[in-house]
Specification:
single chain, 401 residues, mainly alpha
Amino acid sequence: MSSLRLHQILPSWLTLSQFSPAYKRLLLPISLLVLIANPTTRLVSVNTLSDAFWAVSSYVAFTLAVYHYLSGFFSQENKLVNLYQSSRNHQVLFAALLGALPGCGGAIIVTTQFVSGRVGFGAIVAVLTSTMGDAAFLLLASKPDIGFAVIGLGVMVGCISGWVVNEIHADDFLRPQAEQVIGRVSQCQTPTKGFEQRAINLQGVFWKWLLLPATVIALLGSFQIDINQLLGWPEMTIEWLGAALIITSTLLWSLTKEIKDYESTVAEDTKQVSSHPIQKAAQDTNFVTAWVIIAFMAFELVAFFGQVDLATTFAGWGPWMPLMGLIVGLLPGCGPQILVTSLYIAGAAPLSAQLANAISNDGDALFPAIALAPKAALVATIYSAIPAFIVGYGYYLLFEI
């Protein structure tokens, strides 16, 4: 019997599609619960998850909240954004600065303006070179001094790359015709289900009440203050609390979107423009947190079971680490880039790999670029890999060899 005939006979709630594991993200919180339930992995899992929540997620949430509040304030005046269209060299500078903004919003703006003919090809190369995507939030929250330095370097490299491209190509290089763009704009956007919307709203409520106390506890922990002793709690209380909270956040994140393809796996969830800044910060924080957990848990479990010091092991791969960071950076989406930054924060990847990845990665901005101007996106990505190779290996030869 054909599948069409089966759907005609059976009611909609009794078809084979009901057994499709749409919310594959649930594998993450379920796996974490299994690791904590297992006595062998319980201690390392609780400590790792606690560190991920208090030392990473809390700072990322605070950084994102400040960012989204400021974004809402500055978005009311767009004169500065419109100014850079007057000169192709100014376009490159402003595009690099927009790309330097944490997240992918600035890069997406320049990408769409290139397609509409407002900026040239040099600008799109500059913005894709300077952007770090959501990995910037993680680096700024964990190592602010390195984060600002990497962002500043990205702006400088992005400007140089864009100006060089301006000397080689015309502004309309590989720009698609208007009729070619029609129909390319995201065909996979579907209305958010009521169940998913409730989970999204709960993310906002979760961080609304936790943002301030979590930030305070994270700051106290950064100053090496024993929270359990300070509050008179039994040993491991704050660790168990952090583990429980981070599992809760990943559970909420896992129910907000179905995994259908590569983009829905590695790209942040779409946020409504009208959403409250805390709501936007919550969605981004839980996305970043999920990928941080994957990196941290993989790092700790390999070291635990294999009795391997990954930092020492990767140190032996020195000449290959910048190339590995560069290659991962070529992958669209912020998820893989967050993995590289997490490994750098954990001490498993050198700064040369982080630099190569930061310059080569285009974050989520590459998805609309591929959808609207695929040829331009491909060439711009290849162009961004060249300075990434130079900077990554330049730093390696000067400071790490």
